[in-house]
Amino acid sequence: EPLPALLARAYQKRAAGDDELQQGIVNIASTLLEWHLETAQRYGRRLAKVAIATLRKAAKTGLYAGDTVQASFKMLATLISYDTHKKPSSSSEEDDEDEDDFYSVSLGDAQLKAIASSVHVALTSASDGSFASQRAATYALLRVLVRRPVVVSEMYEIMNTLSQQRVTSFEKSERRRASAILIHFVTHYPMGKKRRAHHLAQFVAGLDYEYEEGRLAALESVGAALRVFPEALLAEYAEAFFMPLALRLANEDQSACVASAVTVLATLLKRVPASLFRGFLDRAFSWLDDGADQDATSKQRWALLGARCVSAFCAADRSLNDSLVATLVEKLAALLRTTSDVPSVTLATLAAIERFFATFPERAVAASSVPENDLASLVAPLLARDETEVRLEASRFFGSYFARRDSTPENAEALATAFLAHVDLNDERFDDRLGRQASENLLFLAAADEQRIFERLAAMAGRRGEKRRRCVFSFFAAASPDAVRRHLPRVVAPLHRAVEDEDRETAALAHDVLRRFEDLFGADVVGSAVTQVATALRKRRSERKTKRAEDAVANPEHAARRKLQRNLDKRKKSKRDDSSPAGRHQKRHHHADLLF
């Protein structure tokens, strides 16, 4: 208990000119204040003067990134918001709960201005250390100044700096802390309407930042603000957020930023009044129509903007009447018909359709059943496109479409052929996301085309290509037990061969699927199927061997050419193995051994 008073007196009387002693006193005092000693309230003003004196000394030297300055900031953050009956909120908290704190230390305006100026300089000073070691105390003090609030002109300059730090800082923790303080400042700090509009505009100023990470940080900050802003404030400035977000959707090329912008715009649309929501929706519809009479480039840009905005409107999950739903389906169908040759617009349209089906499942199926607006028939040709992302989005659409249907579609055979083609790719072209979605869709279509699907997949699993084989094995594991039992020998054949595969992941998956079948059907049934497969395999090998022996007698020239080609293939394979990193390493060691 007596230590705070002793430290304050020692700083004033004995530490003059001794930098090391001053630094030790400040560090010890900042730690003692965390223990909530009752003498801290009595000697709080003296300790605050110690911290302010340290900051004035730092102002002369310009060293604001040192440990002593950070300890001073930590002292002031604790003293200004210190309550002897309640533990102060940790500097790591990012929420902005309103609390009636008892401030035991009241400082004059000149002292508060000096503290705010020191915080501003510390924020703008370059630091080689991490945020946790060099900036955490600065943000803790700033949070206290905003929540108190301390009304000085320097606070507005600090907020201008924070609006840049929340986008440009290299550390995610600092960006989030700056964003949280700026949100609380705009929401609760006393200011005029013009100044509030200025700081609100700073939220969307970073949406066009040069680097993707900065744009993502700006979008995250805007989303956090839209979630906590009062509804009255949001309704007043909704237009100031809607247009910048829409322009970001129109000009963004990175998929992560597009997804984040759609989510943030949906957050805005979810909270605005119904009249504003309807006005924004009509504007999105007009963007889809405005590009019809323009050149190809402008038409694509308008279509891209409209499709991405429609996706955000669907994600907002607001109630729409039947007329709006019908109009929405009509616009999306028209987009697929007119811009299906533009990958970016097609992707945006498919994403909007997928969100539409996820938000309004029953009404979407009913509205799309109209012949001229049949979305399923319009999306089906996109399954054969060369672009992987387009095929993936089309497959995801059918995944949502099948999940809301009780019967298989009329074109089930054609769709199954397309999904089988997504799986039947070599490892260089195989996409795990596309293969997984195609397998899920084939599970639904197996009820209408079971025989062909199981035959094709079993044949695919018998060829080389580990990614494709694992995808097929996953399909077998998820398929209906009754369907698997009807095709058990055909299914077990590739699994039995894969158990001894060199690829450990494939072998482990095949072993797990066989164990699952043993649990479902019994070890005897699966063992009988495995025996049947092994017998048939040995029979085929024996027949091929006998045929080659007969061919060597009946047609020796053909047998010689085949033997020569087999030797050439072995040499090529040997060269490929030697050219691989493992082969070169082994060959280098072999030469070294010979040299030795």
Biggest beta sheet summary? none
Return Rg in Å. 35 Å
Number of continuous helical runs: 32
Query: Could you tell me the number of beta strands?
Result: 0
Classify the beta-strand content into a percent band.
under 5%
Report how far the terminal alpha carbons are from each other: 77 Å
Helical/strand content category: mainly alpha
Walk me through the topology.
Elements: H1 3-13, H2 19-32, H3 39-42, H4 44-61, H5 67-80, H6 109-124, H7 131-134, H8 136-147, H9 154-168, H10 172-188, H11 193-205, H12 212-228, H13 231-236, H14 238-251, H15 255-271, H16 274-290, H17 296-316, H18 322-338, H19 343-359, H20 361-367, H21 375-379, H22 388-403, H23 412-423, H24 432-445, H25 450-461, H26 466-478, H27 481-486, H28 488-498, H29 504-521, H30 523-554, H31 556-579, H32 581-595
